[in-house]
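Students often ask what a 'structure token' actually looks like in practice. Rather than answer in the abstract, let us consider Probable quinone oxidoreductase, a protein of 345 residues. Its sequence is given first.
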Amino acid sequence: MTTAVFPETIEAFAINKTGGIEVLEKMTLPFPKVEPGHLVIKVEWIGVNFIDTYYRQGLYPYSSFPAVLGKETSGEIVALPTDPEVLNNPDFQRMGYQVGGKVAVDFLGTHSTYISVPWIKAYTITHGVSTRIAGAGLVQGLTALSFFEEAYKVKKGDTILVHTIAGGLGLLMAQLGKHLGATVIGTTSTKEKAEIAKAHGADHVILYKEEDTVKRVLEITNGVGVDAVFDGVGKDTFESNFEMLRRKGTLVSVGNASGAVPPMSPLKLLPKNLKLCRPTMNHYIVTPDEAYFYGDKLFEMISAGVLRINIFKEYPFTQEGAQQAQKDLTGGKTTGKLLIKVTQD
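Now compare that with the structural description of the same chain:
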């Protein structure tokens, strides 16, 4: 086997300390250590997510600095693992990895020109999907699929509420909910965003800045409430969710866009026998079987047109581009996905 030759350095979006947008820099760093069980990937596209801002701000901790940001990329395999046990593993072989093959990656610290990642964190792009679409749809697509399957199993006849439905994850949840036969209610900030959400399958969209969300949800559901709430806002919407859930409903706390949810007593669930979960996709997709199932299902649904990946904007691979992407994401002005195009020699 020919040993691959890699550059000595990479370009990466990284931080030397946590803080505001100004701590995000484009740095030249040593080429990452290549472990025997890793794939090495030349990155083509970077997906921007709220979790990038949580790490940058210090809401989620890094163990050391400089720390490379990001957890969503796509690109081309330039080297396979060297560990014979990995190469002979049937689960590894089932994924169909090959040098020159295209993959999408969900792994922390990967917003850079080259990455070295455990093979199980790389999803072989199937069903004719491009690296651009895969890089835009992987994390939010896997989140929507796994949450609708395992956090609360959305089924025909359900009524669900999705907060910030015009964002990247929200638009995927709208489409998936509609595909599964649910009535989808969403919240968003503007009429323009509401129209986009409706075009992606939302049945009712509430303008939370102009309307009373609780009142509207109870009107739509004839006072019964919804079967499940998927809430990526966090602190600002958490309390009102309990008023909008029906008896035996489920609250899925998806994210912290407005800040972390404060501690609460389990007794809050008692009046309606509610369920509360705060899942993360990375604990639903751990085993090779789970990765293969959800990865292939996602790309199949994208290819079939069940899930349309709405890309809001592409940014350049510069410090200014990365900072602007995070500003735009947290500023509430975007619909769909933000991507950074990685340009290399």
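One point worth highlighting: Residues 182 and 190 are 24 Å apart (CA to CA). Ask yourself how you might have guessed this from the sequence alone, and why that guess would often be unreliable.
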